[in-house]
Amino acid sequence: MQNPYHQPTHPGGPYPPPFAPSQEPGGGRRISRKRLVTGVCVLTALAVAAAATGVALGVRENRERASAAAAASAADPTKPLVAGWKTVINPKHGTAFDVPPGWEVLEPDVFSGYEDTKDKEKVLIGHTAPAFYKSQWCSIDANGDGQVTDVRLANVGTKGAGGAKNPADIAVKEAPTWVYAAYTQPDKSVVTADKPVEYTTKSGLRGSYVKARSSGAPRPHRCAGDGQAVVFGFKNSRGDLVSWDFYGRTGVPGAVDDALIMRILSTVRLAGDPKDPGPGP
Predict the structure, then answer these.
(1) Which residues are registered as beta bridge partners of 37?
(2) Residues 205 and 268: beta-carbon distance below 8 Å
(3) Is 242 inside any structural domain?
(4) How many angstroms separate the CA atoms of 195 and 44, rounded?
(5) What is the per-residue burial (b if ≥16 Cβ within 10 Å, else e) of 265-275?
(6) String of DSSP letters for the chain
(7) β-pair partners for 214
(8) What is the Cα–Cα distance from 148 to 36, expressed in whole angstroms?
(9) Which of 57, 68, 159, 244 would be 232's cystine partner, CB 3.0–4.6 Å?
(10) Is 138 domain-assigned?
């Protein structure tokens, strides 16, 4: 069977459907009118931290400062590696990473994922303890029924990777799935992915990442369009396979660029022992 994701630099078999989290798919953020987060995003808890305006890209830190920050993180993972940024902790998997101050950091038990547009009972992929960037970047009542869909500009979080063989395997499988689930359903042919790249974060955490993207995604409404994903696979302190997942729109004003994505990725680190024994999101 032909690979549903065109990977010219990494041929392989078809991507198996990821496990479905225990949470039921459903509505997302609801404000003055009924609102559903695109995809659809499932929020099992909704406690959004207050977000400052703007995105602090900062300046390049010298090696000594970066090393000192990494050492401090090892002792206190709640302290951000980038001054002024926010730390996102997922106690379920024992992981942490930082995001710029303009991002919304949600509670650790919030699950954010995407259902299959052809089967509303099937969750394609999702993660917990997410951080959103411009969560109401674009809003639309696609069906004219009063249910307003909020489309985020970008999202990042972590998830378990039960069934994966190794960190590279996680990244190869999940990166194109995020792009497909968030941006191109039901068309897999417009999704491409790179080969996995070995990577070590500032804290010394080793793993592999894969970048995937779409070109020519369906545009059923004005908020729709192409996107990209970066997935970094690694092991937590218990030896469980885990992934850090970024996905966001491309080709639009304010889109998160590659430099910022990699800077966020560089802050991924371990944060104590995992609290949950399961491999789920």
Answers:
(1) 150
(2) yes
(3) yes
(4) 34
(5) bbbbbbbeebe
(6) ---SSB-TTS--SPPPPPPPPSSPP------SSEEEETTT---SS--BPP--SS-----PPPHHHHHHHHHHHHH-TTS-SSTT-EEEEETTTTEEEEE-TTSEEBPTT-EEEEEETTEEEEEEEEEEEEEEESTTSEEE-TTSSSEEEEE-SEEEEEEE-TT-SSHHHHHHHHHHHHHIIIIITT--TTEEEPPPEEEE-TT--EEEEEEEEESS---SSTT---EEEEEEEEE-TTS-EEEEEEEEE-SSTTPPPHHHHHHHHTT-EE-SS-S--S---
(7) 191
(8) 6
(9) 244
(10) yes
Tell me the pLDDT of the chain (281 aa) as tens digits: 444 454 433 333 333 334 333 332 233 333 333 333 334 343 333 222 222 222 222 223 334 444 444 444 456 888 999 999 999 999 999 999 999 999 999 999 999 999 998 888 899 999 999 999 999 999 988 777 888 888 999 999 999 988 889 999 999 999 999 999 999 999 999 999 999 999 999 999 999 999 999 999 999 888 999 999 999 999 999 999 999 999 999 999 999 999 999 999 999 999 989 986 555 67
Structural domain span for residue 241: 34-270
**Is this prediction's pTM over 0.85?**
no
Structural domains in the chain (count): 1
Is residue 26 assigned to a domain?
A: no
